[in-house]
Write a structure and sequence with these properties.
- The protein starts with a helix and ends with a helix.
- The protein has four helices and no strands.
- It has about 100 residues and is an all-alpha fold.
């Protein structure tokens, strides 16, 4: 059962990534922001090296929490969208 759960989560994550690729193709502002983030990684690393240990720890904790929140939200929203779609189709007697 755990293997099935992992497979479903992997499938949903792949679907999210595919949809984000489509979003990048369809939305120039999103694509530009993604590219800016990618291009600024080196500068951010250099900036982090200039910080004291306490500030580095704070920034690292913030980045980890922001990433974790985003990942959990993506999975939840995709799964919830799936459930909402099924409920919607049942409402109209399609399922």
């Amino acid at each position: 059962m755990e293997n099935l759960r992992n497979e479903i989560q992997s499938f949903m994550q792949e679907m999210v990534e595919n949809n984000l690729d489509t979003l990048k193709e369809q939305n120039a502002e999103y694509a530009r922001c993604k590219e800016d983030v990618k291009n600024n990684l080196k500068a951010m690393d250099e900036l982090m090296e200039k910080l004291c240990a306490e500030d580095k720890e704070l920034m690292n904790k913030y980045e980890i929490n922001a990433f974790t929140i985003s990942a959990i939200e993506q999975i939840f929203l995709y799964k919830q969208g799936w459930h909402d779609c099924i409920d919607f189709l049942k409402l109209f007697g399609i399922l």
